[in-house]
Each structure stands twice: as structure tokens, then as C-alpha cells.
Amino acid sequence: METRPYFILGDVSCSVTVGLASGTAATALGSLEWSMPVSMVAGMLLGMTVAAIGIIAFGLCFGMTELHMPAMITGMLTGMGIVMLGSTQLLTEVTAGLLGALIGLVIYLLTWIADALLQLERS
Amino acid sequence: MDLATKKKWDRASSSLDFFQSFGAERRWAPVKRELFRAMQGKVLFVGVGTGLDVPSFPPNREIIGIDISDRMLARAKSKAKMYRGRLELRHLDVHDIDYAPGTFDQVYTSCTFCSVPNPVRGLEVLREVLKPGGELRMFEHTGSGTFPFNCLLHLMNPVARLIGPEISRDTVGNVVRAGFQIVRVRHAYLDVLKTIHAVSPT
After folding, report:
1. Looking at the partner chain, which of B23, B186, B189 has a beta carbon nearest the beta carbon of A62?
2. B190, A64: Cβ pair inside 8 Å?
3. Which residues contact B121 (CB under 8 A, 6 or more apart)?
4. CA of A88 vs chain B CAs: smallest distance (Å)
5. Fewer CB atoms < 10 Å away: N or C end of chain A?
């Protein structure tokens, strides 16, 4: 697993930024009168698009292969999650962005743990 | 020569160094140096690209680097000149390798078999040009066997394939299907980025 501070900082920054941006962007979908499944798919696609931009931008400095797993999962989950939450309660852009950032941080931590466990499996 | 693949990598040649040379290469350099340290005898390096791997080669080795894209090779020339050893570059598709059977002691690849259109056939060709007992050492990104990474890679693969490599291939399985014996597989990141050490049967 990655232990170099430069790359850990880059990986965390990318996931958190993608979560923040996709969470904020997903609130815009709440104003559209779409059915829940359509809104969720739209939220997921929006999150993936935001993640792709983040992966390219951060990837220049930190490498895309390691960034794209946590960032893409963060974008997808945040996009879907914020659309679902937004349908049951009022979410401001700030709250949605912070929730997205938290999702990004948790996803990064889970990916890092998965990486550590998989690196133990050496044949 | 597979012209569609050549065209794709010719097109990518102008931006590859920009996207890869700083972040990815800095991150991967320790893994690559460790893999390449074992270079010995006559070495074939498949998919030398723009020469991003050349600075990680150990000095004083005899290496032939091939690539399907002549535009990539044009960019690799300056890096190859800096190499302190014998490094010859050739414009060649892995499927069309024209070396005699048993020419090489070792074959190396670095993020290559995500892009070879027929990976098993390509690996079979490499097995043929290796001496019996010769080594195949690879640094490759592959598909994953772990949820949710496997689903994600399959989902993103059609888009990735359009602009560059496939990201959900079973490269370890392809190595076995091509007739190699696996010595060791080490994960460098998740089970997606890995080094593969295999040998040609004696």
C-alpha cells in the first residue's frame, strides 16, 4: 500500500475534492422533476463525469491508476446518494458538498485498507 | 501490423509524456527499478513507447526495445541515447516479431498487454522467441478479482478502450494460456497493478 506522504496527500485530496464537487453539483438535479431511478442514474453519471475531470487534473501530479478507483467510486456514490437524500430533505449546496467530501475520505480509507490486504496476497 | 492499434498509439504519442511522466512514473519508479534490476543476457522490451521506462533500466545491458508506434519511437530516441548500455529501438508489432526462436534470455513489458489486440497470441510469440527456461517479467495493470473494483473496471472499460488501454484484462490468465509457467505475481496497487514473473517451459 502507498506509504509516501506526497502520494497519500494527493490521493486523499483527489477523493475529497471529487466528493465535494460531485455533491455540490448533484444538488442541481434535485430541482428537476424526474423519477427517482432516473435521477439516481443521472446523479451517478454526473458524479462519474466530475470524477473523470478530477482524475485527469490530479493524475498529472499523482498518477491516474491509483486515483481512479477511490475517486470514481466517490463520484458515483456521492452523485446517487445526494440525489436520494435530496428527495427526502432539503439539502443546501454546502451540506451536500461536505457530505460528498466525507464520502470521499471514507472511500479513500477503505480503498487503502483493501490495498493493504490485497498486497498481503502474494503468490 | 495492426494499423488500428498503431493509429491509436500514434495519436496518443504527443500527450503520453505529459500525462504519465511526472505523477505516474514517479509513483511507479521504485517498482519498475526493482523489476528491471533482474535484466540479464539478451533482453527484448515490448512496448517501449516514448521511452518512459528507459531511465529505470539498469546500466550496461543489451536490450532491444520494440513498439507498434513509430511516432512513440521517435520520442523515445533521445531517452535511448542517454542509456548507458546497448539499447536498440525497432518499429515492430508484437504479433509480427521476426526474431528466430530462442533468441532472447528475457522479455520485459511495461503496461503493454493492456493494449495488444490479441494478448494470448502476442504472449505465445514472446514464448517462441524466448530460450527454453527464459523469463517473462511484466509490469501491467489488469482487471480486478475484487468487488467493487472489478465492476468499476468493467463499467469503465469501453470508454478506456476508445482512448487507450483496456483496463479489465485477465493478464495473469493470458500468460498461463500462452503456455508460460507463473513464478510469482506481486500486487503493486490493489490487485490491479502488478508485476508478473513467468518462465518459458524448458
Report:
1. B23
2. no
3. B95, B178
4. 27
5. C
Residues making up chain A, counted from first to last: 123
* Residue corresponding to grid cell 490487485: B191
Using the predicted structure, report yes or no on whether residue B100 has a pLDDT greater than 50: yes
Cα separation, A12 vs A18, whole angstroms: 10
Q: Under an 8 A CB cutoff, do B19 and A60 touch?
A: yes
Write the Ramachandran bin of A113: left for phi over 0, alpha for psi from -120 to 50, otherwise beta: alpha
Q: Confirm or reject contact between B27 and chain A (CB < 8 A).
A: yes
Classify domain B3-199 by CATH architecture: 3-Layer(aba) Sandwich (3.40)
Of residues A23, A4, A15, the one with CA closest to residue A105: A15
**Residue B44 and residue B65: Cα distance in Å, rounded?**
6
Domain boundaries, chain B: 3-199
Condensed to tens digits (0 to 9), the pLDDT of residues A24-53 reads 999 988 766 778 888 889 999 999 999 999
DSSP letter for each residue of B179-202: T-EEEEEEEEETTTEEEEEEE---
- With CA atoms as reference, the chain B residue closest to A119 would be B187
Reported pTM: 0.91
Report the chain B residue with the minimal C-alpha distance to residue A58. B23
Interatomic CA distance for residues B48 and B111, integer angstroms:
9
Tell me chain A's radius of gyration from C-alpha atoms.
15
User: Could you read off the pLDDT of B39-53 as tens digits, one per residue?
Assistant: 999 999 999 999 999
B19 touches chain A (CB under 8 A): yes
Cα separation, A20 vs B89, whole angstroms: 46
Nearest chain A residue to B18 by CA: give it: A60
Beta-strand (E) ranges in B34-120? 42-46, 62-67, 86-91, 104-110
Q: Is B182 on the interface with A (CB under 8 A)?
A: yes
